[in-house]
Every structure is written in C-alpha cells, then in structure tokens.
Amino acid sequence: MRIKLEKRREPSMAMLVVTPVVSVLVTMLIGIVVFDLLGIDGFKAVTDIFITPLITSYKWQDVAVKAAPLIIIALGLSVANRAQVWNIGAEGQYIVGALCATGVGLAFGTMGGPVVVTLMVAAGVIGGAAWAAVPAGLRTRFSVNEILSSLMLTYVAGHALSYLVGGPWKDPEGRNFPVTAPLVDSQTLPVLGTSTVHLGVLVAVILPFVFWYLMSRSVFGFQVRVVGSAPNAARHGGFDGKQTIWLAMIISGGMAGLAGALEFTGVLHKMDLGFASGYGFTAIIVCFLGRLNPIGCLIAGIVLAVTYVGGQMAQTSVKIPSSTAGIFQAMMLFLILASDILVRYRIKLVKGAVA
Amino acid sequence: MSAEFIILAIITIVGLTTPILLAGIGELVVEKAGVLNLGVEGMMLMGAISGFAVTVMTFNPWVGILGAAAGGAAASMLFAVFVLQLNSNQVATGLALTIFGPGLSSLLGVGFTGRIVMPFGSLFPASLAKDPIWQLFFGYSPIVYFALIMVPLTAWFLKSTRAGLILRAVGENDLSAHSIGYSVRKVRYGAIAFGGAMAGIGGAYFSMVITPMWAEEMTAGRGWIALALVVFAGWRMGRLLIGAYFFGILMALELYAKAAGFSFLPSQFWAAMPYVMTVVALTFISARGTAGSNAPACLGKPFLPST
C-alpha cells in the first residue's frame, strides 16, 4: 500500500472549510499528549486554553477586545497574501499607527470629542499605510524583497516607540517611566456600558463583511485574486502588477495602523514599550487559519483571541508559562499549511510497491 | 581614541558579527539548494536554549555546542517535513517556525532561567592573549574561529566538490536534477539540516558566550539580519563575510555611540541603524539588478515532479 496524490481540478471547497477546524482540533489533541508527557494535566491545560474563555461569560469581553486588533490586521494581510505580496511588517505598521494617533492626541492637548478621536484614528490609518508604503515603493521601484524590508521596518518602529515614549512624549508626571500621559476621557473611544468593549470591536465585526463584499464583488477584489494566482494572465488582462502591490501594501498597512490606533484609543489610553505585543505577527496566523477569507478571519481572530485569554488563565490554573499559547498558535499555523495539500490534492491509497 | 579602545571595539565587532555570520552561512547553503527558510530566528532561539541547557547539564560547553547544532537542526527538520513532504508554502511555513521557535524555546527554558554557565570563552590560554594585540587574534571563543573557518570551507564545498555541485544543481533546476537521478528531497533535507545547525550554533553564541545565560527571545531579530545578509551577499560566500562585518560594525555603533561622542543623537537612533542600513543596502543591491542574477532559479518554489 502506498499513498498517491492526485491533483484536483479545482480546490476542494469542503476541505477549505473543514481543514482549519481539524487543524485546531488536532492542535488541541497534540497539546493534551505533550502536556501529559511534561507532567502537566494536559486535558485541563487544553480545556483552559481553548474552551474555558468561551464558556465563562465574564471572559467574553476580554476575548472580544483581544480579537479586534487581530481581525482588523488579518483582514488587511489577507488581501496582501491573496496578491502574493508578503507584508510581514504589520507589527511595525500597528505601532506606527498608534504613534500617529498619539501624536495627534498630544497636539490637541486636553481637547477631545468625536472629531478629535476620529482624527486620531485617521492618523493611525495614514501612519500605518505610510509605513507600509516604504516597502511597497522599494519593491516596485527597486525590486527590494518586501518580506525583509517590511520586517526591518518593524524593528525601526519599535525603536521609534522607545525613543518617543522615553523622550519627547514622556509623561512629565510619570515618575520618569517611559510612558505617555494617559489620554483625557474625551480622547478615548466610547465603550459599551461598564464593559471594556470599545467601539473598535464593532469596527472589527463590521469590516469583515465590507472586505468580503470588496473581495468577491468588486473589480479590485478580482484584480487582487488574478494578480496573485495568475500573474501572466493578469498582465494580459491589463491588470497592473505594480499597482496591485501598492494597493496590497497600503491596505494591509492601513488596517494595521487602524488596529493600532483603536487599541490605543480604545484599550490602553497610553503608550509604553509594552505596546509592541506581537499582534502583527499573530495576525499572520489568523489570516491563514481564516483561509485568507474575510469571514474566516473574523472566526479565526476569535479563536486566536481565545487562546490568548485562555493561555493567561492556564498560567495560573495549571502553572504553564505564558509562552505556551504561542506554541499552540504556531502549531495551528503549521497544521493549516500542511493541510493545504488536502485542498489541492485528492489522497488515494494505491496497492502495490513503491514506484 | 586610544589603541586599547580600538582593540576593544574590534573585539566587540567580532562578537556581534559571529552569530549572523554563522546563521548566514547556513541560510546561504539552504537557499543554494533552492529552499527559502525564513525561520532562522526560530532556529537560532532553539539553538540558544539547547546549547545552554546541554552546557548546564553536562558542564561541558563543547557538548553544549553540539546540543545547539542539534537543537537548531531539529527545529529545521520540522520546517523541512512540511515543505518537502507536504509541499506547504515555504514563506508561510518559515514564518510558522519563526513564531514556534520563541514559544518552544521559552517553554524549554523555564527551568533554566536565572542560571549562569561559565562563558564559552577563549580557545587559547589566557597567557597568550594577555597583550592587547595578541588578544585581537587569540582572545575569542572557539565559536568565532569555527565561523571564520566555515566561510572558506563552505565556499569550497559549494564550488569544488561533487556534493556541492549537486546541491547547486538542485537549487538551479530541481526537475533536471531529479530526471538524472538525484534525490532532490534528500539534498534539500541535508541543506536545511545544515542551515538549522549553523543557525543553532549562531544562537548559542548569545546564550553561551555573550551573556552567558538564557533569556527569552534573546536573539532579538538577528536571524532576520542573517536572511538579509544572504540577499546582500548575492549568494556569494566572500561577500557574506564582508556583509556580516559591515552589519557587525553598524551594531557596534549603538554600543560605542556615546563613547565616541555621538550622544547628540538618541541611543534608539543608533539601535535602529542596522535595520535601516539593511533596507538601504538591500535597495542598492537590488537596484543594481545584480542581486537576482546569482539567485538560485528554484528559490522558494515547491518541487513537483510529474512522476
């Protein structure tokens, strides 16, 4: 008996939907086994990480707040990845977006209100897009690999954050800690009742449907998909590859900047070194787990947010290090990438010797 | 600037260069075989924790180095199985390894946080390196000499040996290499394992020589600089060495900016310099259009034989 792969004429829709679910389940199974081998109650650890946040109502707001930036960044990245543009510097664009929002907020002093907050968020979008425009320009003009340039700029953004919060933007009443002064209430996003759920969460719920419409119903969505899957055909069809790279980078950068600005104005209200929390990298997993589909990103964003919240809970309940959630997240990405083969190929068992 | 200062600066530069040089040598071989493994950072961290853990357990840094190589290679095999066996996307799988490495290394490192080993210091007896000038040649960890020896050795392997020729053939045209009977997968497994081992040793330089202790995410993005270095070098070993030292000098600038009277600019400016210069250097290399000419033709593409 041996395994034979047969290429499908069209990618299997069923597999496209089933494999992410299976990937999450297999990740949980592996987790149980590995934890038991490490001498930790595996079943408890895995249920704490993957299930408890979902069935504990007071944790829902944490999940929603964590999911929002992941979903928003992943939406942008899914557009870029569909066009085969690899923006892995979303973390940097997220930081720059928040810094731009901070700058606008500081410029208005104690002035606030919806207009100022809108300007702050808009500055975040523009900042993120501008940060992503650098790799876009370098790629289209000088054919510089955008993977490396966008990632390098993430480190630059991190150092810019460190400089600004430790220097010019440092809170004069902050006991010399590298942190900005907290935003005045009128410069923050409104929240739902007494919860921590801010307006950005609503944005994260609505945007996937906007993106779904754009990607599946507009010429732009068609252009992105064609340039990504069949560059030669796209050229014949008159779609400009360079223009697509620009759009892909600007959209993904703008979304990351938006996420950063919303996180700052909606959750943290002040900037410090801890702002670079890795959402920009986790969002890469979200967009693959969501199969580069906007609605998929919405669901996958919630799944990853659950592992963040659950990971924190498991830290105290079964005494596992905080990094464990990261391992599970990476494992999901590995499995989803591996399962791609099931989407594109049919697996057949053939009798007989190995050819 | 005194002579001592210059000597001290050179020793610092050598130390900063060694990890990215090692990881860069490994990645160059991987890419020559036609595989793009973006997981260098993850493999370096796995090497850093494995090397440190083995040293703590065996009290022998030489065994520790083997542990680092094994740790990096093991991490790379995870990537290899997915990419070579399941034809998963190389860019995304490499990113997965980059995310996986910090997580797993932190988990493994829990029991080793706060512990210290004797730094894997000078290869030569201290008496030989007493004089500052002699220290310049004999004052380094064995890993430094290993890295410097590996540059010509790997270059010779790629250029002049039969195995090196096969490896390059697999990277240039996998289907032709396959049709004349070479196992593309086996060659690539070998190359990826070598890349992982070298990245692992590079990572261990942080945990066994520089600090010498374990800290989460201690490689701080150097794996990515190593990746940029390969492009910067145009896939040539000689230029890789030059490039590595160029980046080493840039990284040293941050440490010496104050001493050298550059304090009119914030320290973060100097810290960001290597990353900015990487982008600038890549731009110059790419704009000249010569970078692509030496790139392996099958780089990053899946191997899909018809039979």
SSE layout and pairing:
The complex is a heterodimer of chains A (355) and B (307).
Chain A: E1 2-7, H1 13-37, H2 42-50, H3 52-55, H4 60-82, H5 90-107, H6 114-142, H7 146-166, H8 199-217, H9 219-229, H10 231-236, H11 241-268, H12 279-289, H13 294-317, H14 324-338, H15 340-344, E2 345-350
Antiparallel strand pairs in A: 1-2
Helix pairs in contact in A: 1-2, 1-14, 2-13, 4-8, 4-9, 4-11, 4-12, 4-13, 5-6, 5-7, 5-11, 5-12, 6-7, 6-11, 8-9, 8-13, 12-13, 12-14, 13-14
Chain B: H1 3-32, H2 40-58, H3 61-85, H4 90-109, H5 132-138, H6 142-160, H7 162-172, H8 174-179, H9 184-210, H10 222-232, H11 237-256, H12 267-287
Helix pairs in contact in B: 1-5, 1-6, 1-9, 1-10, 1-11, 2-3, 2-4, 2-9, 2-10, 3-4, 3-9, 6-7, 10-11, 10-12, 11-12
Tell me about this structure.
The complex is a heterodimer of chains A (355) and B (307). Chain A is mainly alpha-helical and 355 residues long. Chain A has a single domain, classed as ABC transporter involved in vitamin B12 uptake, BtuC (Orthogonal Bundle). Chain A has 15 helices and 2 strands. In chain A, strands 1-2 form a two-stranded antiparallel sheet. Chain A is globular and about 75 Å long. Chain A starts with a strand and ends in a 5-residue tail after the last strand. The mean pLDDT of chain A is 90. Chain B has 307 residues and is mainly alpha-helical. Chain B has a single domain, classed as ABC transporter involved in vitamin B12 uptake, BtuC. The longest helix of chain B has 30 residues. Chain B starts with a helix and ends in a 20-residue tail after the last helix. The chains are: A mainly alpha (355), B mainly alpha (307). At the A-B interface, helix 6, helix 7, helix 12 and helix 14 of A face helix 4, helix 10 and helix 12 of B.
CATH topology of chain A: ABC transporter involved in vitamin B12 uptake, BtuC
Q: How many domains in all of chain B?
A: 1
CATH-defined topology of chain B: ABC transporter involved in vitamin B12 uptake, BtuC
Order of helices and strands of chain A: EHHHHHHHHHHHHHHHE
Largest sheet of chain A: 2 strands, antiparallel
> pLDDT below 50 for ≥5 consecutive residues: which ranges of chain A?
none
Structural class of chain A: mainly alpha
Whole-number mean pLDDT of chain A: 90
